[in-house]
Amino acid sequence: MVAGTAEKNQFLNLLPPATRAGLEAGMSVHGGGIGDVLQADNARIEAVWFPLSGLVSTLRRLEGDSKVEVDAAGTEGFLGIELVLGGTQSYDTWLVQSPGRFGRLDAQAFREVLDRDAGLRAAAHDYTRAVLSVRGQWVACNARHTIEQRLAKWLLVTRDRVGEDIHVTQDIIAMMLGVRRASVVTVLGRFVEDGLVSHGYGRISVRDDERLQARSCGCYSRTVDLLFKIAATSPVAQPGKRA
User: Fold this and answer.
1) Which of 61, 98, 211, 236 could be disulfide-bonded to 55 (CB atoms 3.0-4.6 Å)?
2) Taking residues 206-227, what's their average pLDDT?
């Protein structure tokens, strides 16, 4: 593994040094572009993935080939919480939503460290509880809030993970939110007209944080509180806090 990459993943960065070194020793680093699949649905989990940059969505299959986002992981965490809960299979697809670099650790190696290392077990269980809480929050949000609120929330949470410039297509956003692309085009167009974001091909940039938060629902702040709770003591900048 390339030296120093752990500093780019907050979950790894907060582990005890010996635990982190043990995980790093077995990792390989891979680049990922928009739409790359790290894990197919209804398949055995072969590896745990630690985003060092970029963002990976967890997609649940609906009817036919349609899928919708139920979760996402950036540099605050990892993909593979099923292993923490004793499972071996994922019912979801892990798809790169925003390009970046991702650390790959064999699933068996992760389980072995998890079994013998109390520090990793505690951190992994804390993160898993946070992820499950966020999933519940997003289910409630999708059931009650408008597309405008949900898109604003999605842009803000994604911005917190990958920075001001979000490299994503409108088709991907529509899939993430489970709505028609035309709806994304309409709402995103309003955000651009109002000066909340700027939009180019395959890229969206947040321009007015406070006003975009006002257009979002309370699920944004709740998600930040839940998702980044583990990173609260991290020496790196906290998501949701602008410098």
Assistant:
1) 98
2) 91
As a whole number, mean pLDDT of residues 92-96 equals: 95
pTM of the shown model: 0.85
Is the domain of 64 the same as that of 173?
Answer: no
CB 83 within 8 A of CB 56: no
Q: For residue 163, what is the domain's CATH number?
A: 1.10.10.10
Which helix (H) or strand (E) segment holds residue 102: the answer is strand 100-106
- 240 in a structural domain: no
> Of 81, 106, 140, which closes a domain?
140
SS3 123: helix
The sign of the torsion formed by the CA atoms of 176, 150, 213, 134 equals: negative
The answer to whether residues 128 and 150 belong to one domain is no
HSE-up of 29 (CA within 13 Å, CB side)? 16
> Which of 1-5, 111-115, 173-177, 202-206 has the least mean pLDDT?
1-5
pLDDT tens-place string over residues 30-45 = 999 989 999 999 999 9
Lowest mean pLDDT among 53-67, 77-91, 197-211, 222-236: 222-236
Tokens of 55: 């963002």
Both tokens assigned to 155: 């842009």
Considering the domain architecture, whether residues 81 and 157 belong to the same structural domain is answered as no
Q: Which domain holds residue 163?
A: 144-233
